[in-house]
Design brief:
It is a single chain. By secondary structure, this protein is of the alpha+beta class. It has one domain. The protein is built from 4 helices and 4 strands. The protein has a 4-stranded antiparallel β-sheet with strand order 3-2-1-4, covered by helices on one side. A hairpin with a 2-residue loop joins strand 2 and strand 3. Helix 1 packs across helix 3 and helix 1 packs across helix 4. The longest helix is centred in the N-terminal third of the chain and has 37 residues.
């Protein structure tokens, strides 16, 4: 291998190592957020606004993919978290990674039964799940 090929290979390994560090950081944040959201959901909701960090450190798509893996594993082992816990976890990790995520609450009525739901929006757009039949609740 000549010097140019070695340099290119070295740069590729640096990119891979950076990507693995980013994934490890997001996985650790997700695990911490899951524990806190299940144990202290009210405190997590209250503290969510303070969690917005500086500039984006990870791509929104990467965060959604890695946090989604946790939810898939939990569902497969029969421990699917509620929509509130999922939303708290996702919003916390997104905010810690610099994305302005917020919790959105909605309701719908099915045959006289009122049902509530919670999801996450970034810049007003729902992420990970798109609630179609729920009417968003507002403060005004």
């Amino acid at each position: 291998m000549d010097g140019k090929q070695q340099s290119w290979l070295k740069e590729m390994w640096k990119l891979k190592a950076r990507s693995l560090r980013e994934a490890a950081r997001i996985h650790a944040r997700t695990a911490k957020a899951l524990l806190r959201a299940r144990a202290f959901p009210a405190a997590e909701m209250k503290a969510l606004q303070r969690r917005l960090s500086g500039p984006h450190t990870a791509d929104e798509g990467a965060v959604l993919r890695l946090v989604g893996k946790w939810f898939t594993v939990l569902e497969r082992i029969g421990m699917r978290p509620s929509c509130l816990v999922r939303s708290l976890v996702l919003a916390r990790v997104l905010r810690e990674e610099g994305h302005d995520a917020c919790l959105v609450f909605g309701v719908r009525s099915d045959n006289g039964n009122v049902e509530g739901h919670c999801w996450v929006a970034v810049e007003g757009k729902p992420v990970m799940e798109v609630p179609t039949s729920y009417r968003e609740l507002s403060n005004g």
